[in-house]
Design goal:
This protein is globular. The termini are far apart. The chain has about 350 residues and is α/β, with parallel strands linked by helices.
């Protein structure tokens, strides 16, 4: 494991520096946090005896092997297929214990909690992040309280309940759910997948895996379904670390795909946003929007919007090819279909089809 002394928590607005084990989710001035470290990744830091993402533990903010809560998650397959007579590589991010890529963030965040000795958490979620947090909390023996919208898929709520989480259902949209969770965070650790910086240290392993799986022969463009941006931001963090280490020369273009009904990266007026069948990205006010836009600009990516009809059509097409994913996961592929196909492209399939229903 790596050395705790390399790491600290930093306010992204004021550069206030806080200790790595502070039980916080925002700064004293109420701003967002990020994790900084003084490490430089080298290939010999990979623990080849580890089968999953903890092979990169030398670059993760958990410092005791005994603290790690893991199911061997990660190293999701890369599969090449053809859609509309064009080749595309898919990374099967729905093949995680809880059924979505959010397990990447959950395994790191919950391991951090265990290392610090904290036993109670609250999280807000459209379903997948809550399921991931509840899954790892169950294994760690941590009490979890998950706040969801009453409109969340019954299948996702049932998963949370089976995992032993206390499920709090409230009326309102995704932002209302987050506000309720923040109130409850006065008495619990806020294990938020969008506020808590430890979550992004888990999702950054997407980039590490892709670099290792392709032998550095990376796609030119990656199409991410984007709501709160936990995967596109994690990928950007990971690829920036690889760039700083001299292991890549050019970052893949990070392209955000959003439902046309709820394209918060484009529209500033929430009144112009409405519901979408892609519930996992139905976010009208992504709190890390400036960071998401920066990742897109830095990598020369773009923002693509897709209609509800295009999402359904793509979801059905993927199923016909054997990829049974939730509708949100079809959004990235729908965006790729609308692109010019000029890039060597990859799309992560983010959530399992059993999540819908």
């Amino acid at each position: 494991m790596n050395n705790k002394e390399y790491w600290n928590i930093v306010c992204i607005s004021t550069n206030e520096v806080l200790p790595i084990d502070a039980p916080i989710w925002n700064s004293s001035s109420g701003n967002l946090l990020q994790l900084n470290h003084g490490l430089v990744f080298t290939p010999d830091m990979i623990d080849i005896e580890e089968q999953g993402l903890w092979r990169y533990k030398a670059m993760l903010p958990v410092f005791s092997k005994e603290a790690v809560i893991s199911f061997g998650e990660g190293m999701t397959p890369l599969v090449q297929t053809e859609i509309n007579n064009k080749k595309i590589t898919l990374k099967l991010e729905y093949l995680f214990p809880s059924g979505s890529y959010k397990d990447r963030g959950a395994t790191v965040l919950i391991s951090h909690m265990r290392e610090c000795g904290w036993h109670k958490l609250v999280e807000d979620s459209s379903g997948n992040a809550g399921a991931a947090i509840a899954t790892y909390a169950a294994k760690a023996g941590i009490n979890s309280q998950i706040v969801v919208s009453e409109n969340t898929s019954p299948t996702k709520i049932r998963q949370l309940e089976m995992l032993g989480a206390e499920v709090i259902k409230i009326a309102g949209n995704r932002e209302d759910v987050a506000e309720e969770a923040k109130k409850r965070a006065n008495n619990s650790y806020y294990a938020s997948h969008c506020y808590n910086p430890f979550f992004f240290q888990g999702t950054k392993t997407f980039a590490y895996e892709l670099w290792e799986q392709t032998g550095g022969n990376l796609p030119e463009e990656i199409f991410f379904p984007v709501g709160n941006g936990t995967l596109i931001l994690g990928s950007f963090i990971g690829f920036m670390e690889l760039l700083e280490a001299g292991l890549v020369e050019v970052l893949p273009r990070h392209t955000a795909v959003q439902a046309e009904n709820c394209a918060a990266l484009i529209h500033h007026d929430k009144e112009k946003l409405s519901a979408t069948i892609a519930e996992g990205i139905a976010v009208k006010k992504p709190i890390r929007k400036p960071e998401i836009l920066n990742a897109i600009r830095y990598t020369k990516g773009r923002i693509i919007t897709v209609t509800e009809e295009e999402i359904i059509s793509c979801w059905q097409k993927l199923a016909s090819l054997g990829f049974y994913v939730e509708k949100t996961a079809a959004v990235g592929v729908a965006g790729w279909i609308k692109s010019d196909f000029s890039q060597k492209s990859l799309v992560p399939l983010t959530g399992h089809g059993l999540k819908n229903g």
